[in-house]
Design brief:
The chain is about 30% helix and about 25% strand. The protein has about 350 residues and is α/β, with parallel strands linked by helices. The two termini are about 15 Å apart.
Length: about 350
């Protein structure tokens, strides 16, 4: 039985990926569930985060978002029984690679998969759904009538965030990085039949580099500014100090502060965000807040376990009801997993990559 792992020989070096032969798994411990993996979504391995929390290993397990069938359960497992269909995210400190035919998972990291949801969609949506819920429900409290700016809305995460925001009654504005992305966002419609309004009220095309995001958002909101901003990274310096493609597509931090409304909430994925005193002053005058989106926090405390599982269950319910429709590439066979993971690690995949067994 083979499993996929990442290997980083020295700091700063690109990660390489290797298949390793695994011995047959032991019987499940008290709370373990033995799962036959049917699909595994690939996400980038954050080597810096692993190093910061002292989880540096010679071989890093790859693929944490899995769906599959329960083969066997431990003596104290109460949530599942053999033949149940499950989905979940392996914890950050897991020694199991999701890109493997059979794995052991603690029962508290899994929920039941609805019957009508396919394996690839379950595995490919669970991470982006968790991030969207963390941002829009717990950090920003999106509600009917609020305006939400989702940057790079055609990404897998952006697509789910748009669908969740619109489902909650928010008015959604989004940016597009190419003409193809713009057309995709304009075609997005809510689930159900009949004539429907698009999910995105306004798509701001950044592919030509001439559009001012702040100006477009203020125009769309009648000068009031946006209630919630969900970024996909921001530009911290002037365009002369950063590579052209990056500076062209990412808004400057001043633009985001400018377009925030009074009491606005900026949810950022920028790990090294630096705010200068004038930035802080602007945020203070607006009574605006900055929150950092790190979806790994759910497993850092057992107190959050109930909320965490409730989110995963709700994601599956929304997927089952077609409220969530993920941005997935065609499922990939196991023998292409290594090459596919290299693309994902370099941030070169525009759709969610899922390995199907």
């Amino acid at each position: 039985m083979k499993a996929l792992y990442g290997q980083q020989n020295s700091p700063g070096e690109e990660m390489t990926f290797v298949f390793q032969e695994r011995e047959n798994l032991p019987a499940p411990r008290d709370h373990d569930v033995k799962v036959q993996v049917r699909a595994c979504a690939l996400s980038r391995v954050d080597t810096k985060l692993l190093s910061e929390i002292k989880l540096k290993r010679e071989l890093v397990p790859v693929g944490r978002e899995i769906s599959g069938v329960v083969l066997e359960v431990g003596s104290k497992v109460t949530f599942f029984q053999p033949d149940d269909e499950v989905v979940g995210i392996l914890p950050l400190d897991s020694e199991e690679s999701g890109v493997c035919e059979v794995i052991l998972v603690h029962e508290h990291y899994l929920v039941h998969k609805p019957e009508k949801v396919c394996w690839a969609e379950a595995a490919g949506t669970v991470r982006d759904g968790l991030r969207a819920y963390t941002a829009l429900h717990y950090l920003a409290q999106a509600s009917p009538g609020t305006s939400v700016l989702v940057l790079d809305g055609a990404s897998p995460f952006g697509t789910i965030a748009i669908q969740l925001a619109q489902h909650r009654g928010a008015k959604v504005i989004s940016t597009a990085h190419s003409l193809e992305d713009k057309q995709y966002l304009e075609r997005l419609r809510p689930a159900g039949e009949g004539v429907r309004q698009p999910l995105v009220a306004r798509v701001i095309d950044l592919s030509h580099g001439k559009i001012d995001v702040a100006e477009s958002c203020l125009e769309e909101t009648g000068g009031l500014g946006v209630d919630i901003v969900l970024d996909a990274g921001v530009r911290l310096y002037s365009s002369e100090d950063e590579p052209a493609p990056k500076s062209q597509l990412l808004p400057h931090k001043h633009d985001i502060i400018t377009l925030l409304g009074v009491g606005g909430r900026w949810i950022t994925t920028e790990k090294e965000l630096q705010l200068d005193p004038p930035d802080s002053r602007s945020l203070f005058l607006k009574g605006a807040t900055v929150s950092f989106l790190n979806d790994e926090i759910w497993n850092l405390s057992n107190v959050q376990q109930g909320k965490y599982l409730a989110i995963l269950e709700d994601i599956m319910e929304k997927l089952s009801n077609s409220i969530f429709r993920p941005q997935l590439d065609e499922p990939i066979p196991l023998y292409e997993a290594k090459v596919c993971m290299e693309i994902v690690q370099k941030n070169q995949a525009r759709k969610r990559q899922v390995i199907q067994f």
